[in-house]
Amino acid sequence: MKTRLAIAIAVLLVSAPALALTTSYGWEDGGTILSQFGDITATNVGDQVHSGDRSLYLVDQQASGTPQAFVAWVVGLTDGDEVTACFWRYDTSPGASPSCRIWGSYTAVGGTIDDYAGSAGGNNDYGPGEGWDEVCHTWVFDSDTGARDGLVVQVRTYSSPGDFVWIDDLEVTAPDGTVIHVPTVTPVNERTWSGIKALYGP
Ligand SMILES: [Ca+2]
Ligand SMILES: [Ca+2]
């Protein structure tokens, strides 16, 4: 009996998934984006939302090429770590621009979000273009033999100056021990329960 119990516990321990942390952001506090590459404007708006009262409005301003809005940045990653990001997007042009997709890029060890260290790829899903739909992608981290430790989650807009999309309800999951940055303007210490209690008294 004891042996069977020990085996059962061992199986449970082995099969238990690695701890992960998830951060959600819905643009409710007025934030926009963390950074960008190329010519794109990012505005916090309230005219088209998936949930809550606010969302992110992106306008492609680039004559050629694809501008990128950086909506999340995960740091402290090592080889084989999985990062999954999802967001909701809105356009009403099926099979034509405006559209957007999810993409990723690496950042250099010890660098900032703008220290590009290669493309991490994404997927070719431009969405149905029939209003809101959720797009997700999972990346398996490749440190390039220790040169990278960060992954940027991008929204890429297509295809011409003036093309616009709305983004809402971002969710990023990464292994425990990493740090997930989202465009929140609320200080980190006020987002914890103890921080909130400290702000508003006992
Ligand atoms: Ca929202
Ligand atoms: Ca479209």
Question: Can you summarize this structure?
Answer:
With 202 residues, the chain is mainly β.
Topology of this protein?
Elements: H1 2-15, E1 20-25, E2 35-37, E3 40-45, E4 55-60, E5 68-75, E6 82-91, E7 99-108, E8 116-122, E9 131-140, E10 148-158, E11 164-175, E12 179-181, H2 193-200
Antiparallel strand pairs: 1-11, 2-5, 3-4, 4-11, 5-10, 5-12, 6-9, 6-11, 7-8, 7-10
Structural overview:
The protein has 202 residues and is mainly beta. The chain has a single domain (19-200), classed as Galactose-binding domain-like (Jelly Rolls). The protein is built from two helices and twelve strands. The strands form two sheets. Strands 1, 3, 4, 6, 9 and 11 form a six-stranded antiparallel sheet that branches. Strands 2, 5, 7, 8, 10 and 12 form a six-stranded antiparallel sheet that branches. The longest helix is centred in the N-terminal third of the chain and has 14 residues, at 2-15. The termini are far apart. The relative contact order is 0.26. The mean pLDDT is 91. One calcium ion binds at residues 91, 93, 96-99, 129.
Please give the largest β-sheet. 6 strands, antiparallel
Low-pLDDT ranges: none
Arithmetic mean of pLDDT: 91
CATH homologous group name: Galactose-binding domain-like
In terms of DSSP E residues, the strand content is: over 45%
Helix residue percentage: 10-25%
Class inferred from helices and paired strands: mainly beta
The tally of domains stands at 1
Radius of gyration, in angstroms, nearest whole number: 19 Å
The CATH top-level class label? Mainly Beta
Distance between the termini: 50 Å
Distinct small molecules = calcium ion
CATH topology: Jelly Rolls
Series of H and E elements: HEEEEEEEEEEEEH
Number of helices: 2
The CATH architecture is Sandwich
